[in-house]
Task: inverse folding
């Protein structure tokens, strides 16, 4: 893949052999940038769309082990000549499915490649899958007279795939291009986690209040805690904040759609079910009448709705829901509820209490003794 610059007069892209790196000043500028983007210690680098191998050579001169891929046999031949003696392996292949036979790398490098593919988001997922834990994806892209790939789209796509995403504007450095430019040029460096990050499901729960009563739903046909009472609840979906998720779940389960300003945080709980993984639960309070009259919208998952006094809750409840409502009634706002593996899912009046209340801090500048 060659470097690409927009020629406004011709209305076409100029194809610059050697990424413009025949100019010693341009070459030095790119070498300096690569020094900041690549690891300091020798690493395995996959250069996708390597073209004649100019960037790959700069990386090899820093001690990195290079594998290059380009769709053009002519470019691959030129790159092999340029990288002769470095130990680099240059392959003919499609950058969207690199022919690397299950290998992984410390760095995946691509300059002016992503913008030409049909589905950049899918290709980014593929490229990130080629990285080892703690690896980094180094992209150089831009937008030329409306043609190209804006940085916002790349950063947004990489957010869920990487631990850290760094966007670095390049348009203001004429040394990189051999002249001043006024279009959007940038680098994005995305780093994956060195070890798998701890992740927890986020639940949302509705405490619908009618005076001193709270609405409960009896689970049915779900395969978990069927026959027990629980508050309307569900999971946060990708891209949702917790309040939006709670409003959506309330509409889906009981036909209530409160305005956001009518929603109040009641309690936050970290919970672990018997033999399960931890999860975070956000409990929200909404007053009866805010958002409509509740009714059972999911009869395949719920056998009925019923109102119950907060100070006289039934025993046939899901244990963590009962613990949350007991804490809520007592004015607690933060809770850990950690089941042992042999605990029942159902609340047991005579059973061991697993709830641990976490006191909030006092006013700013004070520390509880």
Result:
């Amino acid at each position: 893949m060659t470097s690409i610059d927009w020629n406004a007069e011709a209305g076409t892209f100029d194809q610059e052999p050697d990424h413009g790196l025949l100019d010693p000043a341009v070459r030095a500028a790119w070498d300096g940038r690569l020094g900041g983007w690549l690891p300091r210690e020798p690493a395995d680098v996959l250069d996708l769309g390597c073209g004649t191998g100019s960037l790959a050579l700069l990386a090899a001169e820093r001690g990195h082990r290079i594998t290059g891929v380009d769709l053009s046999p002519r470019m691959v031949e030129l790159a092999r000549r340029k990288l002769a003696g470095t130990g680099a392996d240059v392959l003919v292949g499609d950058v969207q499915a690199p022919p690397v036979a299950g290998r992984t790398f410390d760095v995946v490098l691509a300059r002016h490649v992503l913008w030409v593919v049909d589905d950049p988001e899918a290709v980014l997922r593929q490229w990130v899958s080629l990285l080892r834990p703690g690896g980094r994806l180094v992209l150089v892209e831009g937008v030329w007279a409306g043609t190209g790939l804006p940085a916002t789209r790349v950063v947004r796509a990489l957010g869920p795939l990487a631990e850290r995403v760094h966007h670095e504007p390049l348009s203001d450095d004429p040394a990189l291009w051999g002249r001043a430019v006024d279009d959007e040029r940038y680098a994005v460096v995305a780093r994956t986690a060195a070890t798998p990050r701890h992740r927890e499901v986020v639940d949302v729960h509705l405490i619908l209040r009618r005076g001193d009563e709270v609405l409960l739903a009896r689970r049915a046909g779900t395969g978990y805690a069927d026959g027990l009472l629980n508050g309307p609840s569900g999971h946060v979906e990708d891209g949702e904040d917790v309040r939006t998720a709670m409003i959506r779940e309330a509409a889906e389960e009981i036909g209530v759609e409160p305005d956001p300003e009518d929603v109040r945080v009641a309690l936050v709980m970290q919970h672990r079910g018997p033999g399960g993984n931890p999860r975070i639960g956000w409990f929200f309070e909404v007053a009866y009448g805010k958002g409509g009259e509740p009714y059972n919208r999911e009869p395949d998952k719920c056998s009925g709705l019923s109102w119950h006094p907060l100070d006289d809750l039934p025993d046939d409840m899901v244990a963590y829901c009962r613990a949350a409502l007991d804490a809520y009634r007592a004015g607690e706002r933060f809770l850990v509820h950690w089941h042992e593996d042999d605990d029942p899912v159902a609340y047991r009046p005579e059973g061991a209490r697993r709830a641990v209340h976490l006191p909030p801090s006092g006013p700013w500048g004070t520390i509880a003794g």
Remarks:
- The longest helix spans residues 24-37.
